[in-house]
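G., before I forget:
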Amino acid sequence: MILWILLATALAAFAFWGWRHTKSTQAFFTASRTVGPVLAGIGGTAAGLSAFVFVGGPGYFATVGAASLWIIFSAPLTGALQCWAVGERVVSLVKRHNCLTVPDLVAARFGEGWPRGLTALAVAVGAVATLAVQVKGAAIAGEVLLGVPGWLVAGAAVAATVLYSAAGGMRTGILAEAAQGVIMAAAAVALAIFALARAGGPRQAIATIAELRPELLDPWGGPGPTASIGIFLLFALGTCAQPHYLQKFLLLRDRESLRWLPAVMTGALLAVLTVWVGVGLGGTALWLRGELTILSPDQLAPALLASTGSQVFIIIAAVAVVAAVMSTAASLLNLVAAAVTRDLPQALGRTPGPGLGPARVATFGAGVAAAALALLSNRPVALLGVLGWGTFTAALLPVMVLGLWWSGANRRGAVAALAIGPLVQLSTEWARGTGLLAVRWEPGLLGAAAGAAALVLLSNLKPNVKGDQ
Amino acid sequence: MRRLVPISVLLLVAGWLTAMALDLPRMAAAVAVSCIGAACVGAVRGRAPDRRLAAALSAILIALLAALLFLLGKEPSGATGLYLQLAVMALLAPIVPIVYALTFPTDRDVR
């Protein structure tokens, strides 16, 4: 009880500090561009990794084995890829146009109105859906790891995140994310070492799997090779289109901060991903040996923790999962607030309201909407969770990667890409669900492919239309 | 460049659709690695005439494609596939960020 009171007091003090030091929209949405590579790299990685890494990742390893690694196979590349493909261009646009949000970037390149509006819509809808999944993750962590009602943990995590996000925006958000990133990385490495040690070491764990379920060591098992390569590409290129990743480039204090950003991001990312490989391998070996009993693969990580009988390990894991949830949620709340109070009104030709009041209210509203969506309904949240990454990829990848640097891209092409990408993605998702399309057709990539084709075709149809910058 | 970009993009899209429609994993791997390279073209052009990034990126992507094609050609037995996946990740993890830092242009070099 004393611990909870101390935590609540520290949180309130942190939120108050944020409130006192956040007086402008630039401070609220971009932390006044004072962030260096370490803070942006660790915070960005924490924001990008959800609770799925801790619970779903090892469980997915137990289901499809080495094939699950295609999701994280691009991890060594993605930090640099983001900087090469979008980061450098974003920093350059920020310097010239003083962009505060992702839709600002698109508007700076393709003009006001539809480009800004469609980008803001994609960000707002996708972010609320992804937020809902984070809330659900906190609820599951509470139920499975701590044995307390899920809504209580989810409510506390969301309320805490909303409190400091509404008070200080990204000024408090990036600090909290970086701290949470350090906690996640430390917990992930500790859990991975523990799991592998319990299984007798990595070699013994692999030997056990090779003996009892050799098909789990096949990198092309599960969905098959073509689909696996699709997953690899989705998570490699998709990082260039996630607004909570792109947002970190808006926070950088100068261009030079980019130089070491990939190194920090890659180090932090791989540290956290050790839990996927370590708990996946170790936990699966223990399960196959009959030393763990699970009803479904998702129970692998919780069951491994429960088997220790150590309350410390369980609390470490729960804290790491909640940290993963909160770090992602803070960025998403800020993105929704920006889209609703700044970008959508501007797209409709209205001037955004003065002061930070509307942004703070929108942050609160986004938290409530996501919590309601997550806790009142299971099925839509699961569906939206699957859609989240793919929707951002389908909607934003063509304009952010191709549109920002290709001088031939124009407004008409960008608007078409922003509209067609998500439509194709949602249609493909539906067609896969009904069995009309094979599972190897990855909806996010197909949407991005359609959007990219639309961007180049329509830009060539009538180049340099009014509104291009 | 104005004509080359649309043609390249449409070729990559057509290649990806073909690989998916006909379930051709080798073609999918080649297109996937090409897409990653294509996403970096803007950065490579921005560093011209310095070709260090182009050379380093080509080497990284060729190594990646070689690993994917090797895995695709391998019979599923033992843990070789898993070891290769982990080895590629362990190898690229330090190399790629270092390549980025070493080829990062100073403000003076940016076009």
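Chain B has a mean pLDDT of 91. The first helix of chain B runs from residue 4 to 21.

More on Monday.
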